Each structure stands twice: as structure tokens, then as C-alpha cells.
């Protein structure tokens, strides 16, 4: 079984082309049993961290509605992770009501400190983490690429909210992952995912902390339907290592923990018949 904890739709405003059909096609093609999806349409800033013009902004409520509709259509395959907008919107009554009304298909709250340019410990973000605590779901957050997305800030958030689980998506994208690896050992409620993380980093995390601190994620379909296989240039995807090489290098239990058991536990997916 494979659960992908980091999947997207949307993101056109920042140059991505990811939609619902691509997600389902990739899942069927590569044997993914369940995906937790967030909508990149809620991104607030571009790749240079400049705030997107108003005509390109999509409200967090509209972005969440699209995600909810996707999850409602495929409840046994898709779970929703609302992508929040602390920079240009902040917590709204409408957003909170939407989350509560759809709690049965919402499995996380999604932060993107890079495409919001707001740290997880910023006071504008705290109401979203408080909401995650109230509905008892984890917070998943991009890490890497800028100061506000430094893994250290997510560790600090984990210290502030010991009853919330936090997932360091990317383990510090664009780095050697060493800081993220060290932080994993400092907070029991802090986890990592494999999105663009070399297999060696994941093996090291398992050696240091056991098999219950990392989970599979991919950013699919950021490189298209075949993100799991190759990039747009045809270069082999690192996810092929996770699918075909890693099972030879770690125990069967450790592999199952990484690929689905940890996700079932952290995202509380046990109610699903996976």
C-alpha cells in the first residue's frame, strides 16, 4: 500500500499545471492508494516571493471548495488539506465554518511559508494552527527556499503546540537536509516527508529515530502525470528509488511505516477501508 501525503491541484498563477484528472490518472498508473491534496491556487506570492496581483489571487475559501469537491467525488482516494492564506486574508469565519462542515474529509492544514512569505510562528498563522489543534489534524508545511520557510520555524511552532503534529515537507528544500534531520530528534510531534528528499536522508532518519518519523510525499503531479517516473526532461525520478530500491535496504516494517502506516496514524486515516 502507498499513501502519498503531499499531492496538489491548481497553482496556475505561479506556473504550475496540476489538476484532478492528472492526480487520479497518476494514482491509478503508479498504484497509489490514497492522496492528501492541497490546492496551489491559494498561493499568495510568486517564486520571487512577490505578492501576486489581485486578479491572480484565489481566496482560500474558493481554493478549499475545489479541494472539497475533489475529495467528495473520490472519498476513498482523496483527502483534503486546506491551503491557507495568512498574508493576504488571514483566518475568516467562512473558512473556519467550511473546515468544520467538511471535517470528515479534511486530514490536515497546509501552510506554505515560501508562497506566503510568512513564518509558521507568525501571529497571522497561529489561528490556523489553533484550528488544527481544535479539529485534531496535523499541520503540513513547506520547508526550504527562504528564511520564513526555514525548518527551524516549524520546530518552534511544534514547541508552541505540543498537541499538534507538524510535518516538515521537503526537509528543507534545496539543502543537504542536515538541519531538518537534527530537528526531528528534538520534538516528538515533528515529522518529515520524502518530497524531493534523497533516499539516503530518509534512511538516515530511520537509523537515528526509528521508522515512525518519516512518511511518503511527492508533490505529484508537479512534473506531470509521470512525476513518479521522470521529470519533464525525461530524467529518472528519485521516487523510483523509493519504490524499487529502498525495500531492499530497510526492513519490511520500516518500509510499510514510511509508505503508509505513519500516514494512517498521523493523519488519522484508520476510518478508511484502505
* Quaternary structure annotation: single chain
Counting helices, strands and paired strands, the structural category is alpha/beta
**Uncertain stretches:** none
Q: Residue share in helices?
A: 25-40%
> What does the main sheet amount to?
5 strands, parallel
Number of strands: 8
Q: Give the count of helical stretches.
A: 10
Shape: globular
Q: Could you tell me the mean pLDDT?
A: 97
The strand order across the widest sheet is: 4-5-6-7-8
Ends apart, CA distance between termini:
8 Å
Protein described:
There is one protein chain. The chain is α/β, with parallel strands linked by helices. The protein is 36% helix and 14% strand. The chain has helices spanning 20-30, 60-73, 93-101, 113-116, 126-135, 151-160, 178-184, 199-209, 239-245, 252-266; strands at residues 3-9, 34-39, 78-80, 109-111, 139-144, 166-173, 190-193, 214-215. It has a 5-stranded parallel β-sheet. It has a 3-stranded parallel β-sheet with strand order 1-2-3. The protein is globular and about 50 Å long.
Amino acid at each position: 500500500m502507498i499513501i502519498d501525503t503531499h499531492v496538489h491541484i491548481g497553482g496556475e498563477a505561479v506556473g504550475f499545471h496540476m489538476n484532478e484528472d492528472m492526480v487520479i490518472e497518476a494514482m491509478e498508473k503508479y498504484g497509489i492508494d490514497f492522496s492528501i491534496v492541497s490546492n496551489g491556487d491559494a498561493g499568495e506570492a510568486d517564486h520571487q516571493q512577490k505578492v501576486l496581483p489581485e486578479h491572480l489571487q484565489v481566496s482560500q475559501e474558493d481554493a478549499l471548495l475545489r479541494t472539497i469537491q475533489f475529495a467528495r467525488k473520490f472519498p476513498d482516494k482523496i483527502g483534503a488539506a486546506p491551503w491557507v492564506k495568512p498574508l493576504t486574508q488571514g483566518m475568516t469565519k467562512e473558512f473556519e465554518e467550511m473546515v468544520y462542515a467538511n471535517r470528515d474529509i479534511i486530514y490536515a492544514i497546509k501552510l506554505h511559508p515560501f508562497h506566503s512569505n510568512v513564518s509558521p510562528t507568525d501571529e497571522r498563522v497561529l489561528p490556523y494552527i489553533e484550528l488544527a489543534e481544535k479539529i485534531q489534524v496535523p499541520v503540513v508545511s513547506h520547508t526550504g527556499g527562504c528564511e520564513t520557510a526555514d525548518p527551524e520555524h516549524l520546530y518552534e511552532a511544534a514547541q508552541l503546540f505540543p498537541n499538534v503534529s507538524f510535518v516538515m515537507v521537503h526537509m528543507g528544500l534545496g539543502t543537504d537536509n542536515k538541519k531538518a534531520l537534527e530537528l526531528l530528534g528534538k520534538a516528538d510531534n515533528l515529522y518529515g516527508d520524502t518530497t524531493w528528499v534523497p533516499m539516503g536522508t530518509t534512511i538516515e532518519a530511520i537509523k537515528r529515530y526509528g521508522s515512525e518519523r518519516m512518511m511518503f510525499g511527492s508533490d505529484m503531479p508537479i512534473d506531470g502525470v509521470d512525476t513518479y517516473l521522470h521529470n519533464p526532461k525525461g530524467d529518472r525520478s528519485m521516487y523510483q528509488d523509493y519504490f524499487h530500491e529502498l525495500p531492499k535496504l530497510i526492513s519490511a516494517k520500516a518500509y510499510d511505516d514510511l509508505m503508509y502506516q505513519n500516514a494512517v496514524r498521523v493523519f488519522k486515516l484508520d476510518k478508511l477501508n484502505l
